[in-house]
Amino acid sequence: MWNPTDGYPCAVSLYQQRLYAAGSSGYPERVWASATGLYYDFTPGTDDGDGFSYDVASDQVNQIMHLASSRILTVLTQGEEFTIDGGSVGSITPTNINVRSQSIYGTARPRPVRVGNELIFPQRAAKKIRSMAYDFNTDSFRSQNLTRLAAHITESGVVDIAFQAEPTPVVWMVRADGVLISMTYDRDENVCGFARHTTDGAFKSVCCIPGADGDVLFAVVQRTINGNVVQNVERLDAGVQTDAAIIGSSDTGGNVWTNLGTLEGKTCDVKADGVFMGQFTVIDGQVTLPRQAKTFEIGLHYDSTIVALTPNLSGGLGTSQGNQQRTGRVILRFLNTIRCLVNGQIIPFRGFGENVLNKPPEPFTGDKDITEFGWDSSSEITITQDQPYDWYVLALLRQFTVNTG
Length: 405
Hints:
This protein is an all-beta fold. It is built from no helices and 33 strands. The protein has strands at 11-15, 18-22, 30-33, 52-55, 64-69, 73-77, 81-85, 98-103, 113-115, 118-122, 129-135, 140-145, 158-164, 170-175, 180-186, 191-197, 202-210, 215-225, 228-235, 243-257, 267-272, 275-281, 287-300, 304-308, 314-315, 318-319, 324-337, 341-342, 345-346, 364-370, 375-376, 381-385, 393-403. Strand 15 (180-186) and strand 16 (191-197) form a beta hairpin. The N and C termini lie far apart (75 Å). The mean pLDDT is 89.
């Protein structure tokens, strides 16, 4: 059945107490099913509990790439998507198997992920992300293109995928050029939003593992440290605002912090006792701060940026696109935010008063009003965090004027 000449399966899945295997090089369209409850017994037979094999064939020969189980068994090939079930009779058996072709998009090498009752997979060229789900109107499974409004986001193609279910549903994808992509996806709330994540290096692979407070994202990241190419397993932590960060503490405090060899030669952001101290270069595995501190965080710098595009307003004189326009006022609603820039303009968060010096800045929650904007043919708003502090933007409200004359 499987041997060095005919090849070995490249896709496996468990479904209805059977182990399914498919996609060998000698039989690219064939699916093998084990006996019920006996995962290593593929002896074919005609009884309901026996093993069997079946060719998932159509008018093209397409290599089976993946198997995925839910209410039905999904077969993803290089050029077509199939479903397998037992039909109205019930379970799949050697004499009762129902194979249906659902769409003809094809899938790429990265293994698909299941999000709720949908199957998320990259299309054959690995540049479109599709969601395969049942459609009551057509009584079939549709594969909707999730990247139709952000085709650029998968620029070099997707090479790895992982799904984080908690606390927020996010599909993480690694591009071939080492950029990490996040797709916040919640079908119930009609949310599908993409973001790019870059670092001083290249992301190679990702996975999500359940943790105490939610799923934890781990990534293999390739970096060049002190002239040497290394690959680190790093964890995403929402409470840390630098990459490849090292966190330390001392009861007595100090200004020389050591054991920083994993950042040797790198210019890093440093926070001491919650205050951003600036950038320091790690030399001989240590940095020297200008003052004593009991806690510190040191890591690679990155900027976080949100770009709000120009609104498209329609009226009696046509669209607002291309006309002179002005955002007269912007209200930003923040949660626990320290520092933020809007179009390069620093938003003041700290106020006057007693006991405000020599202590970390207090997080701000509330609205900030910005009015210094001019006329232009576009009205993009860029919101940036350029220091390693928390920031959460809950809403952006704008007053907008268009000159159509």
